[in-house]
Specification:
By secondary structure, the protein is an all-beta fold. 0% of the residues lie in helices and 50% in strands.
Length: 112
C-alpha cells in the first residue's frame, strides 16, 4: 500500500533552516508528481510546493518562493523540502502528498 512518511520537523529560530524528508513506498515513486502541504493552527491546509515526476518542474506558493526548495531523489524514493529564512508564519504541520494519499505530517515550529 502507499505509504508516505515525513521527517525533519523541529523547532527552529527565525532566520533558520530545516530540511524535511518524505520517504515513499508502495508505488512507482518516479512516475508521480509529489507535493508538500502545510496546515497552521486554526487555518486550512495549503499547498506549499510541487515537483514533477522527474524533478524538472516545480511550483511554489508565493509565501515561500525564494526561501524553500523542493527536490526529489527517485532512486531513494524520497522527496525533500529545504526551508531557509524561516519565519514564525511558517509554523505548521507539514504534509507529504501524492494525490489522495497523505503522510502523517511533521511539525515545524519557528520561534525565538
Amino acid at each position: 500500500q502507499v505509504q508516505l512518511v515525513e521527517s525533519g520537523g523541529d523547532l527552529a529560530q527565525p532566520g533558520g533552516s530545516l530540511r524535511l524528508s518524505c520517504a515513499a513506498s508502495g508505488f512507482a515513486f518516479g512516475l508521480f508528481g509529489m507535493s508538500w502541504y502545510r496546515q497552521a493552527p486554526g487555518k486550512e491546509r495549503e499547498l506549499v510546493a510541487t515537483v514533477s515526476s522527474v524533478g524538472t518542474a516545480t511550483y511554489y506558493a508565493e509565501s515561500v518562493k525564494g526561501r524553500f526548495t523542493i527536490s526529489r531523489d527517485n532512486v531513494k524514493k524520497t522527496m525533500y523540502l529545504q526551508m531557509n529564512s524561516l519565519n514564525p508564519e511558517d509554523t505548521a504541520v507539514h504534509y507529504c502528498n501524492r494525490g489522495n494519499y497523505w503522510g502523517q505530517g511533521t511539525h515545524v515550529t519557528v520561534s525565538s
